[in-house]
UniProtKB/TrEMBL annotation, chain A:
This is Xanthine dehydrogenase family protein subunit M. The keyword Flavoprotein applies. The keyword Oxidoreductase applies. It comes from Bradyrhizobium vignae. Keywords: FAD, Flavoprotein, Oxidoreductase. Pfam families: FAD_binding_5.
UniProtKB/TrEMBL annotation, chain B:
PROSITE patterns: 2FE2S_FER_2. Its EC number is 1.2.99.8. Coiled coil: none annotated. It comes from the Bacteria. It holds the Pfam family Fer2. It is an enzyme of class 1 (oxidoreductase). Keywords: 2Fe-2S, Iron, Iron-sulfur, Metal-binding, Oxidoreductase. GO terms for molecular function: 2 iron, 2 sulfur cluster binding; glyceraldehyde oxidoreductase activity; metal ion binding. InterPro entries: 2Fe-2S-bd (IPR002888), 2Fe-2S-bd_dom_sf (IPR036884), 2Fe-2S_ferredoxin-like_sf (IPR036010), 2Fe-2S_ferredoxin-type (IPR001041), Beta-grasp_dom_sf (IPR012675), Diverse_Oxidoreductases (IPR051452). Residues 2-78 form the 2Fe-2S ferredoxin-type domain. This is (2Fe-2S)-binding protein.
Length: 266, 161
């Protein structure tokens, strides 16, 4: 790892001001992606600003029809949160599938979405549930937040403070994990909003990161059942292909994961 | 350089380290607690697992500074004098190790698993929960047996306290 200077911020404002004073800073939450990247010397920030201990950034709260997960809440705490399990059980389940137990104790929702790995789990939930990303400057709709591989709408020095999810009528998540990394070879989150809208998002599949799947949405809008997806065909163009699976394989996985997610949603 | 203050195995320590120092380096290189191992160094194998504030974490994927103020327990801190921790005893009795390299991390993760699940442990759960710990010798069979055995012993020990 290159030399760096570690700072622990005690408030969002302090984190922002530390960032402004540094030449090339990175925010550090759980560090389960940033630290491995720094160890490989693929990143060498002059300063790392630890936001994981900022009290206002930790916790899960349900209020009316909204579930809010603060940005530095570890995956384990989301997976075991009574509020999350009651409001959006599919979201708590998704958190329980990320990485391994030790990673889930450290990794956070804010870190995951700020990194926007094309095979990360949370982006699928945010997009399918039409979540809102709250930062220290503004609110950003999930559809406007994810901008392609490892790219987001965040500006330099902007800090994610929380994510709010409208509680859906029904939701489900299913993923085929890579057997070693547990990242998604394909993961699909399906949701039916309380107003009857159907939203489906897939991670791990597209070359551009998380994506909506309009063909499956249309099929489920007519008939909310796994069988409704039988006749849907997902085009392989634009999908990821690597040693773990071809684009055609992933196209089929999107369909199968969507069916399993609908079955889980009930 | 920064001074990192933390509690390790019940003892308060203050260590001057470069900010880029990992927690596992602080433990091994500065405190000579070499029971915590570095296997893959890429956050996958779990040989470096220690407990921080009661949670099993990968000490190769944390800066020492992130542990400032924390309570850390390593493999050296779980036995009571000469008496092995029930998880250590179960690994020995069930031949849950061959070369022993992954064992410290396995044991620290396994204690965390038992603490989280209490008596509700079955083989499938143990195998699933151990997915962050890699062993290249045993095929996991005796490790899983050891964890299930220890879960019973820890329950008995807890009831006795």
């Amino acid at each position: 790892m290159y030399q760096t200077t570690y700072h622990r911020a005690s408030s969002v404002d302090e984190a922002a001001s530390l960032f402004a004073k540094s030449s090339e800073a990175k925010f550090l939450a759980g560090g389960q992606t940033l630290l491995p990247v720094m160890k490989q010397r693929l990143a060498g920030p002059s300063d790392v600003i630890d936001v994981a201990k900022i009290k206002d950034m930790i916790g899960v709260e349900a209020s009316g029809d909204t579930l809010t997960i603060k940005a530095a809440t570890p995956h384990y705490d989301v997976a075991t949160s009574d509020a999350a399990k009651k409001a959006i059980p599919a979201l708590a389940y998704l958190a329980s599938l990320i990485g391994d137990p030790a990673v889930r104790y450290r990794g956070t929702i804010g870190g995951s979405i700020a990194n926007n790995d094309p095979a990360a789990d949370y982006p699928a939930a945010l997009l399918a549930l039409d979540a809102t990303v709250k930062t220290n400057k503004r609110s950003i709709a999930a559809a406007d937040f994810f901008k392609g591989l490892f790219t987001t709408a965040l500006e330099d020095g902007e800090i994610i403070t929380a994510v709010s999810f409208p509680v859906p009528a029904k939701a489900g998540y299913s993923k085929m994990p890579h057997p070693a990394s547990r990242f998604a070879l394909a993961g699909v989150f399906v949701a039916q909003t309380k107003s009857g809208e159907v939203r489906v998002a897939a991670t791990g599949a597209s070359q551009n990161g998380v994506m909506r799947v309009p063909a499956i949405e249309a099929a489920l809008k007519t008939n909310w059942s796994p069988a409704a997806i039988d006749s849907v065909s997902i085009p392989a163009s634009g999908l990821l292909a690597d040693i773990h699976g071809s684009a055609e394989y992933r196209a089929n996985l999107v369909k199968v994961m969507a069916q399993r997610a609908v079955a889980a949603a009930g | 350089m920064s001074t990192v203050k933390l509690t390790v195995n019940g003892k308060a320590v203050a260590v001057d380290v470069e900010d880029r120092t990992l927690l596992v380096q602080l433990l091994r290189d500065h405190l000579n607690l070499t029971g915590t191992h570095v296997g893959c160094d890429t956050s996958q194998c779990g040989a470096c697992v220690v407990h921080m504030d009661g949670r099993a974490v990968k000490s190769c994927t944390m800066l020492a500074g992130q542990a400032d103020g924390a309570n850390v327990t390593t493999i050296e801190g779980i036995a009571k004098g000469e008496e092995l921790h029930p998880m250590q005893a179960a690994f020995r009795d069930n031949h849950g190790l061959q070369c022993g390299y992954c064992t410290p991390g396995m044991i620290m993760s396994a204690i965390d698993i038992v603490q989280r699940h209490g008596g509700q442990l079955d083989e499938a759960t143990v195998r699933h929960e151990l997915e962050g710990n890699i062993c290249r010798c045993t095929g996991y069979h005796n490790i899983v047996k050891a964890v299930l055995d220890a879960a019973g012993r820890m329950k008995v020990a807890q009831a006795a306290e």
